[in-house]
Design a protein that fits this description.
The protein contains eight helices and seven strands, in the order αβαβαβααβββαβαα. It is of the alpha/beta class.
């Protein structure tokens, strides 16, 4: 509640957070989850978050959940389960971070098509996923340097930022592009220097007219009929 008021005082419109986790420990279970466990967990999550969402609404601030492994909200399906429990609350929005989606092998570009109206914050963070015959998504309890899925400095990973910036521009995203650095190879100083330029170079100045709209002018019906031979 205090964070919502602080964001309001700072003039911020989007506040980043995590959902918390009640059932993450069952994400890949054996034996299978008991019937009704998922619904109960998301009902409880919705009950806890609804008064907070209402408070943020009174502050004029969106709550932006970063969909993150380790949290109950970690992909589009779990986000939709949560939305159902908070009655599609208008303040239950998203922080878009493609690095976590790449490591889950989720289509992070199509995600924007699905949820662009809810994306109010953006972490520009790179990652790479290079599975081997010994290790995959779960990483084998290895340190970050040896995992097949790991975070990288901007431009050093596999995330298609040109595609991301294009889609966000097409959908009219108006928030900040915030660099988040967690590279296991490059220094934070070099990552910051290069990352700032990387983001600047990817920001798109959206065109106000079609590239082939060189003629312009009013529609001439006689001219159009002449082109059609009618």
């Amino acid at each position: 509640m205090m964070a919502g008021k602080a964001s309001e005082h700072l003039g911020l419109k989007a506040h980043a957070t995590f959902s918390g986790a009640l059932i993450w420990q069952t994400v890949y279970p054996w034996p299978q989850r008991p019937e009704g466990l998922v619904d109960m967990a998301f009902t409880e999550l919705g009950k806890r978050w609804t008064p907070i969402l209402d408070h943020f609404d009174s502050c004029g601030v969106d709550i932006c959940y970063e969909l993150h492994p380790g949290e109950d909200l970690h992909d589009g399906v779990t986000y939709e389960l949560f939305l159902e429990k908070v009655n599609d609350h208008k303040r239950a929005c998203l922080l878009y971070d493609p690095s976590h989606f790449l490591l889950q092998q989720l289509d992070y570009l199509q995600f924007i098509d699905f949820y662009h109206s809810r994306i109010k914050a953006f972490h520009v963070k790179d990652a790479e996923f290079n599975p081997t015959g010994k290790s995959g998504v779960y990483g084998g309890y290895q340190g970050w340097n040896n995992r097949v899925g790991r975070f990288r400095s901007l431009g050093d990973g596999q995330v298609d930022f040109a595609g991301i910036f294009t889609k966000l521009s097409e959908y009219g995203f108006g928030g900040w592009a915030v660099m988040e650095w967690e590279c296991c190879v490059k220094s934070s100083e070099q990552g910051a220097r290069e990352g700032a330029s990387f983001i600047k170079d990817h920001i798109i100045e959206v065109t106000q007219k079609a590239f082939d709209d060189f003629a312009g002018g009013d529609v001439n019906e006689a001219y159009l009929k002449g082109l059609l031979g009618i």
